[in-house]
Amino acid sequence: MIGRRIRTAGTLIAAALWLATANPADAQVGAFIDSLFGHKEEPAPQPEAAPAAPAPAKKPAPKAKEASKESKPAKSGKGGDKADHKAPEPKVAAVGAPTAIVTGDSADPATLLAQANAYFNGINTLTGSFMQIGADGRRIGGKLTLAKPGRLRFDYDQPSPLEVVADGTSVAVRDRKLNTQDLYFITQTPLKFLLREKIDLARDLTVTDVANDPGGVRISLEDRATLGGTSKIQLFFDADVKTLSQWRITDPQGYLTTVTLSNLQKGKSVDGSLFFINYGRAEDKAMQQQIQQTQP
């Protein structure tokens, strides 16, 4: 039987401190989990009902401005002095209106966003390898399995005993060595948009930048509904926006975690039992026994 725990800010920080001295691989997984879930105490999800995603605040889409030397900065509510701001015209955040993004690149941001949406919406299943790089530079690899809608799994390489599983309602962080799991709502994680059946980046998140970097396309986003505050997300694609190569998450505390993807395969058959979470109910225990019996 898998134990069930509720993680609080204190236990997360204490665990991170202990892991940092005990096992670098586990410490890195702990840092990644913190980047996903933050450090704010929240109740564990209940298995009886799926949590509802928080309704995004409705704001009018910012209007695109014509580039000129006389253009005035957008109002912020206070009359700040912008004389020392020598950077090019700032990117305009867009909520639901990607055409409002201003970029110095020649590529059309709306087209790049549409290509990214098409990439994600063309995925039914996705498998591959990942390499996670923490804020301190430590690395740990593993296997990624995704099945839309709602299901995701990270299996970390040894010596880490941890695995992260999303079943469409909740996210379970399991410790195979201790035989425990911690539960979170999917809506508390900044990667929840990747699990939606239909993805629209400008609708689901706040788009802050779309740019053509030398190595490919970079899309910068903000998610203000994650546990602990606002998370900043950067997605990196190849030049044709055909492959997602990397994402970077800066958590509400400012810590950066980078995940680089490789050997990705779309449309591969995936075993649905990989995403099973035991909530402790009788039917869950019976299902877990059935799964264990079918495993080699």
Number of H- or I-type helical stretches:
5
CATH architecture of the domain at 3-46 and 115-272: Clam
CATH superfamily of the domain at 3-46 and 115-272: Lipoprotein localisation LolA/LolB/LppX
Largest sheet: 12 strands, mixed
From the 3D structure, determine the CATH topology of the domain at 3-46 and 115-272: outer membrane lipoprotein receptor (LolB), chain A
Strand proportion, as a percent range, falls in 25-35%
Q: Could you name the CATH class of the domain at 3-46 and 115-272?
A: Mainly Beta
Keywords: Signal
Organism: Methylobacterium tardum
Pfam family, one: LolA
Signal peptide: 1-27
Question: Describe it for me?
Answer:
The protein has 296 residues and is of the alpha+beta class. It has a domain at 3-46 and 115-272: outer membrane lipoprotein receptor (LolB), chain A (Clam), CATH 2.50.20. The protein is 20% helix and 31% strand. The chain is built from 5 helices and 12 strands. It has helices at 9-22, 24-37, 109-121, 201-204, 282-294; strands spanning 3-5, 125-133, 139-147, 151-156, 162-167, 170-175, 180-185, 206-213, 216-226, 229-237, 244-250, 256-266. Strands 1-7-6-5-4-3-2-12-11-10-9-8 form a 12-stranded mixed β-sheet. A hairpin with a 5-residue loop joins β2 (125-133) and β3 (139-147). The longest helix has 14 residues, at 9-22. The radius of gyration is 21 Å and the shape is globular. Mean pLDDT is 73; it is low at 1-22, 38-44 and 48-105. Residues 44-59 have a biased composition (Pro residues). Residues 63-89 have a biased composition (Basic and acidic residues). Keywords: Signal.
